[in-house]
Structures are given as structure tokens and as C-alpha cells.
Amino acid sequence: MHPDPVAAFDLITLLASAVGLIVMLRGWKRALEPKAKLVFLGLLVFTLCYGVCLFVEWSWDTRALDRIEDVIGALLPMWWAFVIYAFLAGIVEQELRERETRFQELYDEAPIGYHELDTEGRITRVNRTELDMLGYTAEEMLGRPVWEFSAEKEKSRDTVTDKLAGDIPPGRIFERTLRRKDGSTLGVLVGIRLLRDESGHIRGIRSTIQDITKRKQAEESLAQERNLLRTLIDNMPDNIYVKDTKSRFIVANMAVARLMGATTPNELLGKTDFEFYPQELAAKYYADDQNVIKMGQLLVGQEEPTVDPEGNRKWYSTTKAPLRDSRGNVTGIIGISRDITARKRAEDDREHLMETLALKNEELESVLYVTSHDLRAPLVNIQGFGNELSRSCDLIHSALKDKVKSADMNGEVRTVLNKDVPEALGFILSSATRMDSLLSGLLRLSRLGQAAVHIEPLDMNAMLTDVTKSMEYQVKEAGVTVDIELLPPSVGDASQINQVFSNILDNALKYLDESQPGMIRIYAKIEDGQSIYCVEDNGVGIAGEHQSKIFEIFHRLEPDRKSGEGLGLTIVRHILDRHNGKVWVESEPGKGSKFFVSLPSV
Amino acid sequence: MIYEIFENEVVMLLLGVGVLTFILGNRSRLKQLTASKILIVAFYLLLAGWVLTVLEGFFWEGILNFVEHLCTAVSSVLVAAWCWKVFGSSPRDSASRRPGGQASPSGQADLERKEAL
User: What pairs with residue A126 in β-bridges?
Assistant: First the structure.
């Protein structure tokens, strides 16, 4: 043996092969398939032997192992080929296994059920989804005829037989009912496909099973909803219809059919208004429809005339909405129209009545004015001549007093001259004065009705201050405290609103409670666009039964004790009516009153 | 100059080239083997040794012979290393030797598949 680097390499070859062999044998179970392992083991053994031969040859410089070395040298590449082949076979086998696993997973986890039948209709393969659908295990299903799992056994058997006989064209889908293990049924869609072998002979059937329970439920629900909607549409007294973009009816209810002179709603379908209404009306409806379709906006409560089949003119309030598809495109319109002919007539009647009423009111005011104005002239005569007569009576009385002895005067004449005539004259004059006062009031009221109203913004603080100042004397006389808080502005005729508050304050001063110091407070608030002013006093108050009457003409609370015409609050109400305002009172006897005046806010 | 050609060496070389063709043809599949690069490089070195064995008959006999034995030795060491990689360590050890010390999920799956081979 002599030291040689080549020999050293051979020794390394030898030792490395030995190490590889030992490692492989130690970890034999860890990796590789048995065949590949054996082949690789052979490779290591060959390499080891080859290394031994080389080492011996170079170390001892002998050709003794030449023959063996040649054989091993020739076998070594071949053995490498075996190794590579064995490894590749393992890899391919692994790939196939993976593919099979993947296919089985897909087969089992498919969202629809699968099964395969042999030529006798027996189940040869079934996936997990179908087993889950029916509640069976694979063992319970495999080998059994497929119709045993159907709720319609005869039908199912015939289908399988026909398919196997080639009587059913490909791609046909059947709706069937299967029976689960627990006895419940399951609606499914069954798709059938023939399986053929390499030579084209039928070897069975592959079926797909799709659970349609939810779809069925959805269909039933949809049908119910449709039925509900149809019933609702058909029985509504209003006209309900749907038109397409060319204004052709695609849905209509009975009310529409009746209005348009059709026997059933179906007679309207596909037709337009032009086939039922006069040209002018149909053109108007068409224009409205097209406007809604074009603008995509709602048309609400449009009042439009129409003509029924008998030729009667009618009025309808129509609402049209654009009908959109799932993408938001307008595909037509939905229309609802309500017969408002009766309402329209009532409105016409009311308008007519209002006109008549206004006319009558004018006439009445005119009569009132004339009456109150013209009656005053003879009343003045009565008053004048009554006074004259009274003076004449006084003269007669004084003349007779000097010239005729009392004893000569007839007792009856004396009574007439001294008592009856002055008394009668007193009654005549006081009645005439009272009548004059009433006629003045009526005249003022009638003038108020004819006076023009100049609406303008009002500074209520300034106005109430003015009103209070103008009544300063009465306020001082009565010893009343007037407190005016900050008041919001409003709109109205300045002089007339001034009159309103003057009258209310006058009333408050007139009906003070003498047992306590008078106090008047004026304040306000804004509510719903109205300025509401309150004049509150601590006067005698108004009994409940009088509260609704105090605004009536000539109504007075204490006619014997208090002066006045009973017109103040009537005028207040009259003015506020003309200003779209209101007046009302809250009061309790002995606790004072609150007069509320509502006027439009600025 | 004397050219010395041994038949067995030529046969060995031809068979080796055949195996090389086979390996190159199935390169992508062989990549699925654990540490396939080590094994394939080992074969390439062995093949290089066989080439050098033939060539040393024509020129530089001493040097080429030296390199031939070196190739064979390194090839054997690589085969031993492959054995260590496949049989000498558990899959977890193999994973922990990856860069970063942890196998990626897909890498782990590949590794398990390779281990199964």
C-alpha cells in the first residue's frame, strides 16, 4: 500500500457509500416507497463495491479486481437509470393518488348530489352531498335500485329503464320527489347522462340531483305574493295599471276595464289609450306617460278629466310613477287614479255657494249700511220733534199754571200735563237715543266690512304702547297697572289691529274687579307661524256660558250696570276674520280673563 | 502517441448519457424529490467521471484520472448527503433547516409530499 491522492479519493468514495448505506438502513422506514428504496439500496451497494474495487486497485496496485470493477462500472449507470425510473414511478403514482383524492373531494363536496347506476339501475357510486340530502350512509344506498329512494317509484323506474334503452334524449331534466331515510320527502331536479365503455356500449347512468326545496318554497311564496297583489289590484276601487314605454297596457285592474268600456282587464293588454279615449284626451295621457318615462320622476295627484263609456264627464286624481328594472332603467309606468268626480262637484257647489254667500253678504252689508244710515234720518226727526214737544209741553204747563187756578183744572188734564206727557216723552227720547246708539254701532260695523285692508308688517310693541297711551286717562282713573312685555311683530292693517287691542283693553278696563287693584299684562309667543298675543286681566271674569256669546253682536255681560253697545268684541272678531287671525278667551269668574289674539307672524 | 480505449468505459459512458437524457426529459417531475438537486448533481459528477475516464486514454492521463476519482468521490459524498437528508432526519428537522427556520404552508405541503416518496 502506497500513499496516493487518487487512492484517498477512492477511500472517500468507499466510506461515503458506506455512510449512505448505514444512514439509509437506519432510517429505512422514514421515506420512499419500498420498491424505490430497494433500488436505491442496490445503487449504494454498487457504489460501495465500486469504491472498494477502485481503492484496492490503487492502493495495492493490483488488477485482481479488474473484472469485478468492469462489471460494476457497466452496471452502475444502468442502476442509476433504475433508480431514476423507480423514483419517477413513485412520483407518478403519488400524482395519481392526489388526483384521485382531489376528484373524490370534488365529487363528495359538489353542491349537487351525484350517483351512478349500473345497467340494472342499482347504485354503484354516490357522493357525500346526496347522502347528506337523503340521510343515508353509503353502505345503505350502494347496490340498491335507485327507485327505492323515490317517492314515485314507478315513475322513477320507468325513467331509468327508458334512459338505459336510449329512449330519453340527452340533456333532459326531470322534477322528482325523493324520500329521505326519516320518511320526509325532498323535491329535486334530476339530470341523467348515459355512461358508455370504450366500445360505446351503455354501462350505466350518471345522475345529478339538485335540491329544489328552497326554490319551490320561493316559487310558492312568489305565487302567493303575486296572488295577493293581483287580488289587491283587482279589488281596489281605484284604477291601477302598468304600461310599457310605449304606453301600452301590460297590467290593468277591473276598475280600469270598467272605465274604458272593456269586459275584462285582459282586453286592455297591449292596447293604448288611443283605442279607448277621444284623441285629445288620449294624447294628453300619452304625453304625461312619456314625460314620467323620460324624466323618471313621480307625477303625484294630477287632476285630469276623462269620459266614461256612457259619455259622462268625470274627474280623476292620477299618480304615475316610473317602473324600473333591476338596473334602474325605466321600463314603463305604474299608474293609480281615483275617481274624484263627487269631490269636484262638491267643490264646484261650494264655490257656487261661496259666491252666493259673498253676494248675499254684500247685499246684507249694503242693507245694513242703508238701514243704519237711512233710519237715522227719521230717528233724528223723532228725537228733534220729541224734544220740541217736550219743550212745548213745558211751555203749556207754565202758561196754564199762571192763568188757570189749579182748582179750575180738571184733575185728569192735570195728570196728563204733569205726569203722562212728560213720562211718554221721556220714554220716546230715551228709546230714540238707544236706537241711535245701536244704529251708529251698526253703521260702524258695516263700514268696517267695506273698508280696505292694507297688510303691512306691524311693530306690536310700538302699537300697544300707543294704544295704552291713548287710554291713559281711563287707566289712571281706574288705577290699573298695565305691563307690556316684549312682543313679536306680525302683519296686518295697522289701524284695524289698533282697533282690536283698543277694544280688548277697553273691555278689560270696563270689567275690573273693584275689590282689588286692577292689573293688565300683555305678552305673546310665536306658534306655528302665528304670533299669539294675550291680554290678561284680573277683572271679574266671564262665566262659562257667556264665553261663547261675548263675540256675538249686541251681547253685553251686565247691560244694566255697564255702558256700551255690545259691539266691541264683535268688531274684534270681524277684523281678525279679515286678517286670517283668531280671537278666543279663557276666563274664570272672579279670577280674571285672558283674551288671545292670533295674527300671521312676519 | 498511443491512444488507449477500453470498451467497458465507453459502454459505461454511453449508458450514462442515456440516463442523462432520461433525467433531463423528466426534470420537472424529478424536482418533486426531496433534495433532488443533490442527487442530480451527484449523477452529473459521476457522469463527468465516466467522461474523464474515456478522455484520459487520449491525453493528460494523470490529471484527468485524478479529476475522475475526485468526481467519483464527491459524487459519493453527495449521495451520502442525500441519504442523510432523506433518511437521516425527520420532516420537522428538514423544515427547521429552511431559511428563516420555518417552513411555509405550501413549502410544508411540498415537503410532506416529497417525504411520502
Answer: A115
Query: What pairing do the DSSP bridges indicate for beta strands A249-252 and A490-492?
Result: unpaired
Q: In this structure, are A247 and A140 located in the same domain? A: no
Q: How many domains does chain A have?
A: 5
Q: Are residues A370 and A333 in the same domain?
A: no
Residue-wise pLDDT for A43-72, tens only, equals 899 888 888 888 888 777 777 787 888 788
Q: What's the rounded Cα separation, in Å, for the pair B31 and A144?
A: 46
Q: Given A16, A81, A84, which is nearest B80 (Cβ)?
A: A16
Are residues A422 and A513 both part of a single domain?
Answer: no
Grid coordinates of A489: 311683530
Exposed/middle/buried for A176, CB within 10 Å: 0-12, 13-18, 19+? Answer: buried
In chain B, residues 49-88 whose CB comes closer than 8 Å to chain A:
50, 65-66, 69-70, 72-73, 75-77, 79-80, 82-84, 86-88
CA A88/CA B29 separation, integer angstroms:
7
B34, part of any domain: yes
State the sign of the Cα–Cα–Cα–Cα dihedral B94, B99, B103, B104: negative
The three cell numbers locating residue B70: 475526485
Please name the member of B8, B79, B116 whose beta carbon is closest to the beta carbon of A16: B79
Say if the Cβ atoms of A13 and B73 lie within 8 Å. yes
Going by C-alpha positions, the residue among B33, B40, B63 that lies closest to residue A89 is B33
pLDDT tens, residue by residue, A391-415: 888 888 777 776 655 555 666 777 7
Q: Which residues constitute the domain of residue A443? A: 345-449
Q: How far apart are CA A389 and CA B7, in angstroms?
A: 181
Q: Model pTM greater than 0.90? A: no
In this structure, are A459 and A563 located in the same domain? yes
* DSSP at A150: B
Angle between helices B61-87 and A34-60 (to 10 degrees): 150
Contact of B113 with chain A, judged by CB distance below 8 Å, is answered with yes
How far is A438 from A36, CA to CA, in rounded Å?
135
| H or E stretch at A365 | helix A341-374
